[in-house]
User: Fold this.
Amino acid sequence: MQQFLDSLNATLPLEGYLVVGAVMFAIGAWGAIIRRNAVVVFMCIELMINAVNLSLVAFADYLPNAGGAGVGYAVLVVAVAAAEVAVGLAIALAVYRSRKTVNVDEINLMKG
Amino acid sequence: MLIAFIFLASMTLISALAVVLSRNVVHSALFMSGSFLGVAGFFVMLNAPALAAFQVLIYVGAVTVVILFGIMFTQRPQVRRFRLIINRQMWSGLFVALGVGAFLAYILSIQDWVGTSPGYGPRETAELGEILLGLNGAPEIFSLLFEVISVLLLVAVVAAIVVSRRKTGEGIDRGVEE
Assistant:
């Protein structure tokens, strides 16, 4: 019993966080590939960015020689992602105004 | 630790799957904020409480609200059969994503990260600030990146306004009617 409680309190290996990040990245990539709605594609891209952020912070906390640089990169990634959402949704809005749809497989203006 | 990890991992991953598979776009946005909250919990577990606060403020707060506004402006009521929310790449996309996930998980697991143990990250917010400004032994590139990111945010906000603004004389209520 005591051994079981100790195992619950043990520190987690780095690989646990990395695998969660990898699976989350894969789910986001799947959604970005299969969904038709451009807004949901944005959400899936946000999921992928968050998965990468999780890996960065895990590395910053676990690697002795990193000096915590991963947390700094994570802050920068959050800022870039916020800018990406602002511009992306503005583009979706502009596309909706001119085409009356945001389904990515119906927007084939640049198809040769 | 283990219980918190399992709880946060299941919350994050199940919410992420629900974002992809939910038929209602608004439900997708709400599940997305649930997934972001799970990641914020991971940040707390990883000794980065300041970053967890950023995550809750920016992602769970701001990004979710902006995306909900985007949904409000661009979606009209539509038939929501599952066949209609996905394009034709359902199975090939699943194979690609499974391949990417399995490859990443395998590579990251077999890699020998020498001497890892938790607690090396900057727990204090002051340390995080010094890293961001490239002080006290942090890579000096961060001071440049910090400036670049400021300019990028300004440019992105201006670009968002320019792209989404309505031209004068181009229909009064286009986009709002229907």
Q: What stands out?
A: Chain A has a mean pLDDT of 87. The longest helix of chain A spans residues 69-99. Residues 13-98 of chain A form a domain with the Helix Hairpins fold (CATH 1.10.287.3510).
